[in-house]
Write the C-alpha cells for this entry.
Amino acid sequence: MRERIKRGRQPVKTPEKARSRGYTRGWEQGCRYGSCQAVLNRLPAPAFGFIEKRVLFVLQGFEAIDAGIQQGLASLTRELIVCKPEHMLQTAAASRPDMMLVLNGLHVFPEDHLAQADGVRRLGIQTAIWFADDPYFMDLTPAIVPHYDYIFTHERNAVAYYRSLGCERVFHLPLAAAGHIYYPQPAEPSYLSDVCFIGNAFPNRIDFIDALAPALAGRKVVLIGALWDRLKHYKQLRGGIHLGWKPMDEAAKYYNGARIVLNLHRAPLDPVYSKNKIGLPAGSINPRTYEIAACGAFQLTDLRGDLAEFYAPGAEIETFQSPEDCAGKLLYYLRNEERRREIAVRGMMKTRASHSFEARLSQLLQIVFG
C-alpha cells in the first residue's frame, strides 16, 4: 500500500493537461455520484418507532448536530419544542414537556444553567444531557452531571468516570450524521480538490499537515478552519487555505468535491485547548467521521479505539497511523479511483443504515421512557 513520496520538480501544467485533468475529475465525480444514487434508490429507509411524548430540546450552537437532533426528534415524537440555553426553564414551565434534552451544556450556556436545570426537574420533567465534547472538557462536566436525570456521552471512556461520580444513569450514545445536510451531491468546480480537511488547526493537526506537506506538493489541497496560517508550509499550501468557519452546507459541498477527505481527531491532552486534567483518553470517533461518510466521500482517518465498531477499515473507511503511512495511502488512492469509490459507497451505506440521528435518538428515547 505504501508508495514512495516523489520530490523534486513538479510537472509543467499546460492547457491540454488542464483540460485532461478537468475531464478526468468530471468523470470521477459522475461515477461517484451515480454509484451513490444507484445505491440510495434501492436502499430501504430504516424504520424507527414513534413515541407519544413531547420533548424540549435545548440548542448548543453546534450547527450540524443541533440540526440533526431537531430533525430526529421531530420524526420520532409527538411534539418537538426548541429553545436557546438562556430560556430553558422559562420554556419548560410554559410548555410542560415530558422530557428536556440538553446538548452539551457548555460554552454558550448562561451562568445560571444548573439552577435552571434544577428548576426544570422540580417541575417533574425528566432531564437528559448529551455530551458531544468529551473528553476535551472533563474539567467542567463533573459539575454538570449531578443536575440531570440521564447522562449520555459520545465518548465511551467517559461512562465509567461519570458513574464513579455517583451518577447511576450514564450511557454511551455515539454521535451521527444529519442526513438532510450531509448526502451525495454533484460538486461544482469551485469545490473540487485532491485532498480536503475541514477543522481548526489544533497543534497536533498543524504538526501532521506539516509532516505531510511533501506528499501534498503539486496537489490541489483545501484546508478550512482557523489558525492554518500557523503552518510551517503555509506558503506552499496557502492557495487552498480558507481561514475561519464555513456553514455546514458548504462543508458538505467540499466533502463531495474532494477525491480524499482527511479526518484528523484533536489531541485529548492538548495543554492549550483542552480542559482534561484527569487525562481521560479519547477512544470514540468524532462527528466528522459520520458526516464525511454520509456524503459518499472517500475518507482517510486516524485511528480511534472504537472506529471498527462503526466502520470496517479497508472496506467502508481507510485509516492511517502516521504521516508516512498517510502519505503512502494518499498516493495509492489518488491513483485508484475505483477503489476509492467502492469504499466511499460502502461507508455511505453503513451511515444511512446505522448512524443517523434518528437511530441514536430512538435509543435515547427508549432508555428514558422504556
User: Anything to note?
Assistant: The longest strand covers residues 51-58.
